[in-house]
Amino acid sequence: MEEKLKGVITKVMDNGNIGEINCGKNNKFTYTSEQLHAGYSPVLNDVVEFTLIEDQPFAITLYHRQKGAPAQSSSVDLKVKCPHCGQSIMPKAKVVEGKVKSTFCPKCNELLEKFEQPPKTNFTNWVLGILIGILLTLLIYFLATGKL
Ligand SMILES: [Zn+2]
Fold first, then answer.
1. Separation of 85 CA from ligand 1 center, angstroms?
2. Within this chain, do residues 113 and 94 fall inside the same structural domain, yes or no?
3. Same domain (yes/no): 102, 144
4. Is the confidence at residue 60, as pLDDT, over 90?
5. Model pTM?
């Protein structure tokens, strides 16, 4: 059973390829870009979620990103103030197909943040590829049989 840990990005170096995650209680982890989940580029003060394997964080993904948050020291407070009910809360993530779609407040269930998903280019390209393939086949067929 894998346990997901949470921490705060406290250092971002080398264009985001190296950084540090602080999980509080002197639990600090240094990571390299290979340990990041594909498509995630860390920003200072991001709250991240990861799997710890042999003292190394892996599959580091964004859990919550504060907008316009000032750079602060390494104090870890994973709680944020809900703009809807004003309570100090730990944002809950709504995960769809393994990706965090949005975060919401566990106290009042209001939406906190939405995460833009990149367009499904793979699927679109796949469909386009098939359509173009069919058109080309038809064209070649008509050209070859002289029925055009
Ligand atoms: Zn709330």
1. 4
2. yes
3. no
4. yes
5. 0.45
